[in-house]
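Human: Cast an eye over this sequence-structure pair and say how the chain folds.
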Amino acid sequence: MNTTIDLSASFKAYDVRGIVGETITVESVRAVGAAFVDVLGLSGETVLVGGDMRPSSPEFSEAFAEGATARGADVVMLGLISTDELYYASGIYNAAGVTFTASHNPAQYNGMKMSRPGAVPMSSETGLAEVREGAERYLAEGTIPEADRRGSTSSRDVLKDYAEYLRSLVDLSGIRPLKVVVDAGNGMAGLTTPAVLGAEYLSALPLEIIPLYFELDGSFPNHPANPLEPENLRDLKQAVVSNGADLGLAFDGDADRCFVIDELGEPLSPSAVTGMVARREIRRAQAAGEAEPVIIHNLITSRAVPELVRAEGARPVRTRVGHSFIKAVMAEEGAVFGGEHSAHYYFREFWNADTGMLAAMHVLAALGEQDRPLSALGKEYEPYFASGEINTRLDDVEAATARVRQEFESDGVTVDEVDGLTFTAADGSWWFNLRASNTEPFLRLNAEAENPEILENLTAAVLEQIRQ
């Protein structure tokens, strides 16, 4: 009997992700499906199973369903879904679920994002580690024992209901006509965009959608479905300018993140999008009688976000980086909205889960309800200058961090340790954060300043200490 099976190569802090046939296999997925039911006590309950357009997703979905039904769960197969479709289904049906996706990772990868009932996230600290251990036991034993009652399997398509639900949250029917280029990157937004923003299921909106790479293809023949990399936005930028479009939207592979390009082909920072959506959600909550709505932002979001939130009469709450932290604080605080620098956007009306499409709809509404171009509107939300994330590969991350601290920790400079180290100037003219990667030997620098000269000098000085 093999008693040394180790799934730690594919189980991460918040999800499962690995190379198909190597660190994630049909056998391991089947065992995970069984352990998922055991750990969450789902025998006799509904489990939702779907997947993205990667070639291995259907086979993995079937394997997970086999493991889950063997342990007594009733599986509902959702077929092709975006990750936020899983959250919708998990929320609306109050059922646990999984979607097979590796998000923005290359074609040879796949993985699992799991959810408790009500779209409550799972992490290594809230059940994922126990699922891994249970799956390892089943693999070591070579069998999955049948429950007293084997579960059933059925199918359901939630795309139309998902689209109707999003349409109910943001009314785009009265905005001025907009021309929008959408780059789906051959990912799941190629399915969800026509459903939500087009007239496939619902009434037509005053939007002209120009599609880029809507064909579902998990080999990503045009460019990786990772809009965080500027190179992957090149085609979208060109298409926006050449078509005279009002804006461009880029989604990652599983469509839970959305990036925005203005009419000049320039990106709108995720912090600016966070501010734009926060203002709309604050005002909606206040109109409904909420005295002091709460907005969540992580610690490397622009300081323009908490400043705007306070100016609107709401309360900003700062968190660590990472979606499980954001979702947990969203629930604790009853927050109406949360945003991250990585273009994940979280909504109370979406079970505190992240959805790129709903964020995109808010941007469309904000732009379409006034007459200025997005480049002008966006300037309201980007008063400062940011470095973006600068990663340095190091043999000794701790030593580099200590050098920076020794150099910058002085009278008037505040240092906090909420997530890595954040240094803030006494006069507020700059701040920067240093965080070690959880998975790679990288030190991540994010800096922001009042003007480009301060930012350039600050960034150079920090990197000089890091890279000695």
